[in-house]
Amino acid sequence: MHPIASNHFKIIGKVNGIKGLFILDTGASTTFIGLKHEEKFKLKTQSSVVKASGAGPDKIDTLLSKNNTLSIGGWKKTRFPIALIDLSFVNDALESVKTLPVDGIIGADILKKGLAVIDYEKRYLYLKNS
């Protein structure tokens, strides 16, 4: 994990074999990728009636992509669903503190699946393959 100016941690992960930059967000229930990156990560999407909400705008439209492979370090999960949302409000906030934009957000769904342990002092995310 690498600290950034917004007081978040960024991590590098791969979705469908393609490297991306993500924020680790323990308060996000779901893992998200920005709508702009649908083609980059080879995501096959379908419409979703679920609306996302959180620290940004209320009731954000989402798309859903099923059956993806996600890997972080040596941890890997297959057939994993990922939601797509407009992350422009997140990246605008990051830009305001002179931080590079991110491709997505790693949420609690990944942390639960990987039985995550976060070592803030050493800045390390431990995930267990099951």
Give a summary of the structure in a few sentences.
With 130 residues, the chain is mainly beta. The protein has helices at residues 88-96, 108-113; strands at 2-3, 9-15, 18-24, 32-34, 45-52, 60-72, 75-85, 104-106, 117-119, 124-126.
Topology summary:
Blueprint: E1 2-3, E2 9-15, E3 18-24, E4 32-34, E5 45-52, E6 60-72, E7 75-85, H1 88-96, E8 104-106, H2 108-113, E9 117-119, E10 124-126
Parallel strand pairs: 3-8, 4-7
Antiparallel strand pairs: 1-2, 2-3, 2-6, 4-8, 5-6, 6-7, 9-10
Features:
130 residues, mainly beta, Cathepsin D, subunit A, domain 1, 6-stranded mixed β-barrel, two-stranded antiparallel ribbon, 2 helices, 10 strands
Account of the 3D structure:
This protein has helices at 88-96, 108-113; strands at 2-3, 9-15, 18-24, 32-34, 45-52, 60-72, 75-85, 104-106, 117-119, 124-126. The protein is mostly beta strands. Helix content is 12%, strand content 46%. The chain contains two helices and ten strands. The two termini are 22 Å apart.
CATH topology-level name:
Cathepsin D, subunit A, domain 1
Helix content: 10-25%
Question: Within the largest sheet, what's the order of strands?
Answer: 2-3-8-4-7-6
The poorly predicted ranges are none
* Beta fraction: over 45%
- Give the end-to-end Cα distance, rounded to a whole number of Å: 22 Å
Secondary-structure-derived class: mainly beta
Please give the oligomerization state of what you see. single chain
> What's the pLDDT, averaged over the residues?
89
Calculate Rg over CA atoms. Answer: 14 Å
The count of DSSP E runs of length 2 or more, i.e. the number of strands, is 10
Q: What is the H/E string?
A: EEEEEEEHEHEE
Query: Major sheet: size, sense and barrel closure?
Result: 6 strands, mixed, barrel
Question: How many alpha or pi helices?
Answer: 2
From the coordinates shown, what is the CATH architecture?
Answer: Beta Barrel
